[in-house]
Design a protein that fits this description.
The relative contact order is 0.06. Helix content is 68%, strand content 0%. The chain starts with 5 loop residues before the first helix and ends in a 23-residue tail after the last helix. By secondary structure, the chain is mainly α.
Amino acid sequence: MKWSGLVAGLLSGAALAQAPATLEAVRLHRPEAASLVREELKACDARKCPDSARLALLAGTLVLSEGEAAEAREIFESHPAPPALEAFHAYYRGQALFYSGDAAGAATAFSLAVQKAPPSLEPRARARLGEALLTAGKAAKAAPILETAANQTPSAELFYERAQARSAAGNAAGAREDLRTVALRYPTHPYADEALAKLEALTPPVRLTLPEHLRRARALLDAGLGARALEELEAAKAQKLVKGAAVQAEVSLVRAQALFATKQLEEAEKALTEARKGPPSVAADAALVTARRALRANENEKARELMAALDKAWPKQAAGDEGAFFAGWLDLQGGRYEDAVKAFTRFEQRYPRSRRRDEGMWFRSLSLLRLEKYPEAREALGRLVDAFPRSNLVPQARYWMARSQELAGLPVDVTVPAYEAVLNIAPASFYSLLANERLRALGRTPPPVFPEPPKQLTVPRPPELELAVALTEAGLFPDAAEEVESQASRIRSSEKALPFVHALLSMGEYGYAHAVAARLLWGRAFGERAPEALAAFYPRAFASAVESAATRNEVEPYLVWAIMRRESAFRPEVASAADARGLMQIIPPTGTAIAEKLAEPRPNPADLFAPDLNIRYGSWYLSQLMKRFAHPVLAAAAYNAGPKATAKWAQEKGSLPLDLFVEEIPFRETRGYVKQVVADLYLYRTFYGSGTSQPPLALTVPTPSVEGVNF
């Protein structure tokens, strides 16, 4: 589902022809949407209302989405195009004609759409024009159009269609190239198998090489299709491509990974044994598979032994680099800090070009901090800053340099400037927040990080956004989103970005405003500290829904916004690979569990994209996490990694000061998540707290309660 955030801002506007309830049904793709719009169109036609053309366009698209192409065609052909939306009317009429069997008529409609289309629609219309001409038997006309379309917006469909057009036009080599592209670049797409079949049917047949079969198998594995990956390897074997011990080892390695993915553990281990007999690169990767499996299974002692063995046996392979790093990391996690220092020192010496070198230097420094060897830790942190001045680890290195001075008992006049430097170099970071709290504890008043809060400007709506508004008013929400994204992508300078961003904010289009600002206004917001630029990074998005839900659930609205900013960057349409949905990224099972707790009907998964519902459920869930964990660091960790894992960490390491506790969260993603959310929470409090005194960040970890949620 793709629809623009401005939908929320316009949904209740009086200018809309459709009733808000109808638009809500359309926006969420509810089953009753087409029937509701049909009824409105019928009533509008009966009284000859001025909005019939706009209603007909929406009705036709909805009927078409239900597979009723003939009915959609009748609707489009019996109503004129609404003003300013002629290209979209032509495009969807072309769709109706095509799917009702009139490819030639569809081509005519798509041609008109291409002529009138804005940049957001033109590539789609061009691609459909090429397909319609091809289907109508006009391959010569289709070929140049599909050439352009496939270059504009590469896809499996366009490469496959272009192969057909090239073949019909006598370009056999080009057709083979496109079919191979479909088979190799898009192995999970249905057209990939058809492309392979067409290659096989050529005279002479075109077959994949072993490296190409392995490429497809690995891609299928990455997509979670282990059984398909095994089939791919069997196809290579059937073609007698697996020849020689080195090749057999490489195939065995991929086969082992596919067997593990399909839970055939005994066979997988046998395949790994074969892979270990191969050349060094394959044997090392096979050993790394075993080590990673132990690590994922939390068999840390076994994993540590296996990782160290990788380092010893394969120092010239990437697996050796990874083994050396994780051997040190596992020592650190196990509290063996002396061993961790030695391991990371060894890692730095043996792998000076490692992509993890800065991270290894950081973990060595952290190990020294845990050993209370503060001068050595400070020296190591200084080396990290000097060697990697642009690393994202520099703010934490700077903070811990200052903290190590304080822990070592250095005078306040030494530590205060060091903490203040953190405020200057990383004003919006978790480490700025920590430095701020440390300065307060030392009896110093920290300088304001941002002298002025975000300031939203009142600007006229630029003409570039008028089409997006018209599409939204017509209920064509996906098209409106495409148009906003298209216009946003064409902004190239901060001077143009600033008014555009504020126009988007005024329209309720927080997600795209944030995206444009992140691309073009970062320096103005965090370098110059300009309040106008900050507005797009920290908006009070969907304020009415957030404040209402926060009040009802007794949770800070600022925490809701901080989570929202990290989860979706204020884009209601976002869906993750794990099927987390909407502003607060709620997965359907969690939505169902929340509904049960609230004694509400189970929501349709599509409903989780609705801002109001998503915010209400997310706010309730946050309130329950705060009841259980009583600290935003723990609540944020639980929102990301789950309450069970967070409770375990609090039990095992809750005696640490908060800053060290966060650094030793074992999941890298959760560490970063917690740092951003908590920093954003305090910035939101500072910016919008109405001048009231904000509670400090508690620097101790509370004991979790039995209240709250456990899912």
